[in-house]
Write a structure and sequence with these properties.
InterPro entries: Beta-grasp_dom_sf, MOCS2A, Mopterin_synth/thiamin_S_b, ThiS/MoaD-like. Pfam families: ThiS (PF02597). This protein has 77 residues and is an alpha+beta fold. Helices cover 25% and strands 35% of the residues. The protein has a single domain, classed as Ubiquitin-like (UB roll), CATH 3.10.20.30.
């Protein structure tokens, strides 16, 4: 299982902050596509990705036990 954490507007849009994905393997891009499809999170393309609390690049592999965090851009002053 892969744990998916959503922050800020992504969590609000999905109606949850955490999703469990019951697959043993995936990539960050597959997770983003899944969330776009199931939750309509079109803005997820601009989100920063962290795997196990370390920032990651696009299409990074994930395995069971990993936690992926999706963090949308933040603005403010």
């Amino acid at each position: 299982m892969i744990k998916i954490l959503l922050f800020a507007g992504l969590a609000e849009q999905a109606g949850t902050q955490m999703i469990e994905y019951n697959k043993d393997r995936a990539t960050t891009d597959e997770i983003k596509d899944l969330l776009k499809e199931q939750y309509g999170l079109q803005s997820i393309d601009t989100a920063m990705v962290a795997i196990n609390e370390i920032y990651a690049k696009e299409n990074t592999p994930l395995t069971s036990g990993d936690t992926i965090a999706l963090i949308p851009p933040v603005s403010g002053g």
